[in-house]
Design goal:
526 residues, alpha/beta, Rossmann fold, six-stranded mixed sheet, five-stranded parallel sheet, 11 strands, 12% strand, DNA-binding transcription factor activity, transcription regulation
Length: 526
């Protein structure tokens, strides 16, 4: 129901309108009356009426002055003026204020009723327009993520854009981009520690964090193809310093275990050139291989005159170090090769991976020649190693993998020398079959064609511990790796290392390490 108040210094007129106008039939609540403009203004502030019926000439504040004050805070309030004077100045003022009507005194009830009906209709139309606008605003608000995604899709994939469509979407987002502005595109690659793609709510959290980080700069930010993409409208080069810190900011605010890499395209002028900056940013994503996660890299053209280290020379030197059993030199060669290849920063990452693939195959075959690995494997070694290389995303990860392989190979060469072949075979069997709950000294004795008692004595002499103790140690060490995967339940970890009873596994784990599996898992997270 609409609300109205009457303001007139003439009591007779005021009371007459209150009594004779059919307010309820007009669906209007009479919310108050006043005898002067000042008092009327106070009532207006308190009850916020839709319609004000007011005399023009009143002591103190007149109707025109009062109406001007009302319009400052309630621009949609409808004013009907009453006056015993057909004063041109007042009429002009009433028109300026957009008064609904100017009714002369003595008041004609039919005329004033029609004026009130007209004001009522205008109020209802105002409410309908506001409801329509609110409805449209709600629809736009609910679709802002889609509008952003659609706009970024248009601007990043082609220079052939519809200015009308782009401007309409920018209006929806309440953002103003000028065609002579400077733009850069940032693409943020986001992965969790296990290399899996994130859930939608995780992307939303990161997206909100990015928007918060760059909130003082005009931007459109959304997620696209499992990455966060931001079109940034900037003024000066201070944006570069800002983007250099974005990975640390997200890790601090969201999750320190996220693997983040920020690639930034070159600066471009104008909306139609944004796609060029996006293409450069996409190309720069491959640089994560050299710079690693947690960094921000800006696009730059590669040098054309690069002379890469000789692959053949690297392979020859590794063969020499392996044949001479020179572990230190083999390690130095891997570290030096990784350090040098980082400097070249070439786009063809697979070329770099091929160098290390060949080195890894060489290490494997040399170890196999010395009896470290079984010559009859149930998989294609080359294919297996290449698959591993493809899944290593940075040169640092490759370096770690290569050094691990070298260290393991040389450790096992040393182990062969320091212990009998029999003990080596037993350890290898345990290492492959620790998941078997029923593994025992008898099982192992059958493998090497010895009696259990003789094997036990030999093992104790060579290794310095019983077979049972060694099996327990292997199982506990293997379980530590499984505990690093938070997706595995404790029961699954126990079963994976040969314990069907998780309580017994926990007891053994604590006896060996001094802490429970759960405590170890929490310690690893930190």
């Amino acid at each position: 129901m609409l609300k109205a108040i009457i303001i007139d210094d003439e009591t007779v007129t005021r009371k007459g309108l209150i009594k004779h106008i059919p307010w309820s039939k007009l669906n209007i609540e009479l919310a108050g009356e006043a005898s002067d403009g000042k008092e009327g203004l106070e009532i207006v502030k308190r009850v916020k009426p839709n319609i004000v019926v007011s005399d023009v000439r009143m002591p103190g504040m007149n109707g025109i002055e009062m109406a001007r004050e009302i319009k400052k805070t309630q621009p949609d309030c409808r004013i009907i003026f009453l006056s015993a004077y057909a004063d041109k100045e007042y009429l002009k003022a009433a028109i300026d204020i957009s008064a609904v009507s100017y009714v002369e005194k003595p008041v004609n009830l039919i005329e004033i009723s029609e004026a009130i009906k007209k004001a009522s209709q205008m109020c209802l139309e105002d409410e309908n327009r506001k409801a329509d606008k609110d409805s449209i605003d709600t629809v736009i608000y609910d679709n802002i993520p889609f509008i952003k995604q659609n706009l970024i899709e248009k601007l990043t994939l082609s220079s052939e854009i519809s200015s009308e469509e782009v401007n309409r979407n920018l209006d929806y987002l309440k953002i103003q981009f000028n065609d002579k502005d400077k733009f850069i595109v940032m693409v943020l690659e986001v992965k969790n520690r296990t290399e899996d793609n994130l859930e939608k709510d995780e992307y939303e959290k990161i997206l909100n964090t990015v928007e918060k980080y760059i909130k003082d700069i005009k931007n459109i930010t959304t997620y696209k193809d499992n990455n966060i993409v931001s079109i940034i409208n900037y003024r000066d080069d201070s944006i570069k310093n800002l983007l250099l810190g974005i990975c640390d900011f997200i890790n601090t605010k969201v999750d320190k275990n996220l693997k983040l890499f920020c690639a930034v395209g070159q600066s471009e002028i104008g909306l139609k050139n944004i796609n060029k900056s996006f293409t450069a940013a996409q190309k720069t994503l491959s640089k994560v291989f050299y710079y690693g996660y947690g960094t921000t890299v800006f696009y730059k053209e590669n040098r054309k005159d690069i002379e890469l280290p000789s692959d053949e020379e690297i392979q020859t030197r590794m063969s020499k170090h392996l044949s001479e059993e020179n572990k230190d030199e083999a390690v130095k060669l891997i570290k030096k090769t990784c350090r040098e290849l980082k400097k070249y920063d070439i786009d063809d990452v697979n070329y770099i991976k091929c160098i290390f693939f060949r080195l890894c195959v060489k290490i494997f075959r040399e170890a196999n020649r010395r009896g470290i690995y079984d010559s009859k494997t149930n998989y294609d070694v080359d294919e297996h190693i290449w698959e591993i290389m493809l899944n290593l995303n940075t040169i640092d990860e490759i370096e770690s993998y290569m050094l691990e392989k070298i260290n393991k190979s040389f450790e096992e060469i040393e182990e062969i020398r320091s212990s009998s072949r029999t003990i080596f075979e037993i350890k290898k069997f345990i290492d492959k079959n620790y998941k078997d709950e029923n593994i025992s000294t008898k099982t192992l004795a059958d493998v090497v064609y010895l009696t259990p008692s003789y094997l036990s004595a030999l093992f104790k002499k060579e290794v310095g511990k019983t077979i049972s103790d060694y099996i327990v140690e292997v199982r506990i060490e293997k379980s530590k790796e499984y505990l690093k995967d938070n997706r595995l339940k404790l029961l699954e970890v126990a079963l994976n290392v040969g314990y069907s009873d998780p309580n017994y596994y926990t007891k053994v784990f604590k006896k060996i390490t001094g802490i429970t599996p759960s405590q170890y898992r929490e310690k690893y997270k930190q």
